């Protein structure tokens, strides 16, 4: 296994004869946000629970911080913060009072741990508002404050934006990006909301029916699915040379021995076809592609879209 904060190999969980997660090979790089995207019931939460030792895998391997979690849980887990199931906060206590109870139960030695955690998530340290009076966004932020109170290197967050209004989503997005970019945290978040995973993540894993069917950087996925003109031609090398020499087009990509994609729309399709044919390059097909990430998700999952 390579140099990743988290790496799984063949990770599988069965309940009876039913696969909840099947043969997942996951790779999470340091100081990035990894978005685990899938519909409800796709296996996201089960994967996260296995990473945290809450659910035991049927088979497969999990390595976190370069070590097998099976034999090193006591060393690995204290370096992780998580928000999987909603914490049991007391509704009749303030956020500060709730966190102080957890800090004492967990034996967190730093006296300012609660204040620092609240400051990071933009919640007041000395406020009389009770947890039961919090908005959903405030409750989510308090949950993340609990997850980061012991200053972990890795955060595993299950659906942290679920149920939030647009303002709450934007605030959560900024919070998580700041934790990654300014505080050096590595973060895994799960979501069924494609647009939010696209906006917040560096890398993405798409899971469907328990199978991780795609893993790539957001930039690579966007490049793969941006608007283009696809040509199926007899000679991609000569076609590429003609694009550069005759039209000054360098924004293109060759995907196979007969397929070339042009991302520069300064010349129309008919002009390029004529130039190819004039230079004895056969054109078998030409098509304008305008796929979105939503279209791509539908394509690889073989089903309907995702929110």
UniProtKB/TrEMBL annotation:
Pfam families: ABC_tran. Residues 6-234 form the ABC transporter domain. Gene3D superfamilies: P-loop containing nucleotide triphosphate hydrolases. InterPro entries: AAA+_ATPase, ABC_transporter-like_ATP-bd, ABC_transporter-like_CS, P-loop_NTPase. Signal peptide: none annotated. It comes from the Bacteria. One of its GO terms (molecular function) is ATP hydrolysis activity. Keywords: ATP-binding, Nucleotide-binding, Transport. PANTHER family: ABC TRANSPORTER, ATP-BINDING PROTEIN. Belongs to the ABC transporter superfamily. This is Bacitracin transport ATP-binding protein BcrA. It comes from Thermoclostridium stercorarium (strain ATCC 35414 / DSM 8532 / NCIMB 11754).
